[in-house]
Design a protein that fits this description.
mainly alpha; two-stranded antiparallel sheet; 12 helices
């Protein structure tokens, strides 16, 4: 298992290094991850017997990152305009349907999937298009994934006190603290790109680590509810796409808005 994780992690790191250097390639890769992540999400939900508008959700979910890539903006906050239109469309489809059982759950789950995966993960593209976006995106990815790695290594070696065993039985308090420590170190290492004071970098590293681990736990909660171990099996030993991007789902939008508050938008 450990060897498979190392091979998959190395391959994933090489892919990331190769794509983030080119903005349009980065955008297409993010879009691909969103499409596969949404497919995995809807498949997990449907395993519970919940009917969703899977392909509609995937299609709309793909439009959000592509629209960011093409700089399409009807109005400020236009992503939510898409989501409101999607809600109207789903309601109309449900009204025309002969089967009205499970309407609330089906529509709500579809919209939730779009917001949870597509809207949140699309902020990686927005970060990439900021001034010095390559360095900012690299910093976010490093802080987030180093947190994952640090939590895994420290948890395996020193973990004794379980964090939330009912949701994720292998996560420990020691692992969580290890993830925070490694995330702070990576934030300090990226000081030339982030251009913050040292105390701000420490706070940022702690915040990113906490959000990354909450993102991981959020997906664990979904998997626990759906009674599946992994969202997929694309990455041997590491699960599916959603298993790899879960920690970025909360860190990406928060990091973007924090950077925006610093006035680093093109």
């Amino acid at each position: 298992m450990l060897i498979r994780r190392i091979i998959s992690s190395s391959a994933l790191i090489l892919i990331i290094i190769g794509v983030i250097s080119v903005d349009w390639l980065c955008s297409l890769t993010v879009t691909l991850f969103i499409i596969v992540g949404l497919y995995e999400f809807f498949r997990m939900v449907e395993s519970k017997g919940i009917s969703t508008y899977k392909y509609f959700g995937i299609g709309l979910g793909a439009l959000i990152p592509l629209s960011i890539m093409l700089r399409f903006e009807l109005t400020k906050g236009w992503e939510f305009l898409f989501i409101v239109l999607a809600l109207l469309f789903l309601v109309i489809m449900q009204i025309k349907s002969r089967q009205h059982s499970g309407t609330i759950i089906g529509i709500s789950t579809t919209i939730f999937g779009i917001i949870y995966i597509s809207w949140s993960f699309s902020f990686l593209i927005k970060i990439r298009y900021l001034e010095e976006g390559l360095g900012l995106l690299a910093a976010l990815l490093l802080m987030t994934k180093i947190c994952d790695i640090g939590a895994y290594l420290i948890g395996n070696r020193f973990g004794k006190h379980f964090l939330v065993p009912k949701i994720s039985p292998h996560k420990t308090i020691e692992g969580a603290l290890g993830g925070i420590f490694f995330s702070v170190l990576s934030a300090l290492a990226f000081k030339p790109f982030l251009k913050f004071d040292y105390w701000q970098l420490v706070v940022l590293g702690i915040g990113i680590s906490v959000l990354a681990q909450l993102g991981d736990l959020a997906e664990s909660l979904i998997k626990r509810d759906c009674q599946v171990k992994d969202s997929g099996n694309i990455f041997p030993g590491m699960g599916g796409v959603l298993d790899q991007i879960d920690s970025l789902i909360f860190t990406a939008p928060v990091f973007y808005f924090y950077i925006m508050s610093r006035g680093l938008l093109k």
